[in-house]
Design brief:
heterodimer; A: 293 residues; alpha+beta; three-stranded antiparallel beta sheet; three-stranded mixed beta sheet; 11 helices; 17% strand; elongated; B: 386 residues; alpha/beta; seven-stranded mixed beta sheet; four-stranded antiparallel beta sheet; 13 strands; 14% strand
Amino acid sequence: MWEYTEKLKEHFFNPRNVGEIEDPDGVGEVGSLACGDALKLTFRLDETGRITDAKFKTFGCASAIATSSVLTEMIKGKTIDEAAKVTNKDIADYLGGLPEQKMHCSVMGREALEAAIENYRTGGRKKHELEGKVVCTCFGVTEKEIARVITENNLITVEEVTNYCKAGGGCGGCKGEIEKIIEKVQGEKIKEKLKAAPAKGRKLKNIQKIQLIQQTINEQIRPALRAHGGNIELIDVEGNKVIVAFRGMCAQCRLTEFTMKDVVEARLKEFVCDELFVEEDSDSTQQPHNHRG
Amino acid sequence: MKTIYFDNNATTKVAEEVLEEMRPLFCELYGNPSSMHTFGGQMSRKIRQAREQVAGLLGCEASEIIFTSGGTESDNTAIKGTLAAVPDKRKIITTRVEHPAVLTVCRELENNGYIVVELAVDKEGQLDLAELENEIDDDTALVTIMYANNETGVIFPIEKIAELVSSKGVVFHTDAVQAIGKIALNLSKSHIDLLSLSAHKVQGPKGVGALYVRKGTRLSPFMLGGHQEGGRRAGTENVPGIVGLGKACELAAKNMEEDNRRVKYLRDKLENAILQKCPDSILNGDKENRLPNTSNISFEYIEGEAILLMLDKYGICASSGSACTSGSLEPSHVLRAMGVPFTAAHGSIRFSLSRYNTEEEVDYTIEKIPPIINRLRELSPFVANK
């Protein structure tokens, strides 16, 4: 069971400002049913430009509902510029803290607020959209968003990033990429911590190379394929040729837009050595559902 | 506030009769069964009796029972012990809806070079036996398929599956943790080679279980370091736990039929009332082939953890397949494998009853649930948009 603060529980059982404002000055909608939580925030301004009313509707767990409730309380009476300064940490602090794994609820609150402010500033025209490259396809989290939670909350591990914005919490296929974003944002600070990925760049003995290939497939490739109903098996290694077989791919797999081989090969080059190239096992290429070419 | 416990697939209350049997084994009869003195040696008799009680429930011989620390250890032992005994075979067949004690072990083995096939289930949560038959080949070392699902209560046709697997000369293991005490077994007439069970799901204590190993089944020991359990599971026996498991099995054998009838009546009453009173609620899993105590219901457009907390306020204990309750970010792998849409998977609630539940508790819960569901739907942005 989660350790929720009394304040959080109080807001969950007695949420304030539930509903939708008709003809609002700003609307922010974030999240989705698929992601497991979603928040619609509406607000109205008075003549002086202060938020006089704010309402929410939330689909989600107790902390998502409580977070939304306190968010509406926090922004009432603020000007748009003041409201724009509210961070996810402010929201979590207001509740007396959130369990680490629920920090993403506070981030969702801040995102909804930002979306609503953006919607207001563009005269109600602009709806919230994802900006930039999507890193986590399971939860639709962009590189920009990941970099932002890292900076604002001083995060240094992938697990923390997952707790704060869900990225990496689905199939796990983007964890390598998240590590790189952490490294880019935090720089020298975490150089020591990043030894989880297989070391590269030294001359490998055959047996080491094969083990590293298997490890890379296990950790960097299979989780992503599995999440989309597929799988991969290492058949053999001949010199720099890596022979693999794809299993159980489904037609609606979101990764079809990539060539699977390129994904596999790219990861192997990245984590093992640049000379590697990948071929599909001739037995499995005869099956109709593979993703060749 | 009174606790209304509808979470018996998670764990159960220890029966008073079980506790009574265990009580003297802590401070009075605390000897080690391996000792040469009478004080310790008399414990062997207790263990022998417990072994017979477990065998009595399963319909097998006492010598076919190994005591373990629980369902998870039994599953680990069955899977890894079988593979170690047939080193020339590399393939394992299981299902997508197994308990993590099986699924995680298989996926770890896959990382070590084994080929793992996870059979799909249909929207009722049932398997396609033709697919299973297709997958069994000369390279297959083990088929491991659960007896009944912990989340939905769906029962697989295990006797039929065991017969099929055994006709191909492959070892068959079943995780029967949820089936024990609810489904009558006669393993002497079955083709099951290995079967896992746990005490705390049948009114026994936590931390003890058993693995049935059919005579003649090759199994490498998983725990080393002692001669206990005929060298098949080392470590000083958990005597109070084993005695508790024995008594729990004896009670289960005696009460099963009557309990099943009563529990099913209560479950059906609860389930029918909820489905009827709450719009957009859906029953998950095969309605017919199902444990008599389990009901898994999805409430669309709302989230499970929020429902559980509201129920908790009234002392009602249940569980959910939502992402938020597990600490992971995705909803139940069982419901996803069944193709339950996200609108419903996040709002799934499992009620699992036991012989200790009363009709009064069911009526109280039936009264409390609809307002909770309505309240959360008022908060949901997806309901207004409909």
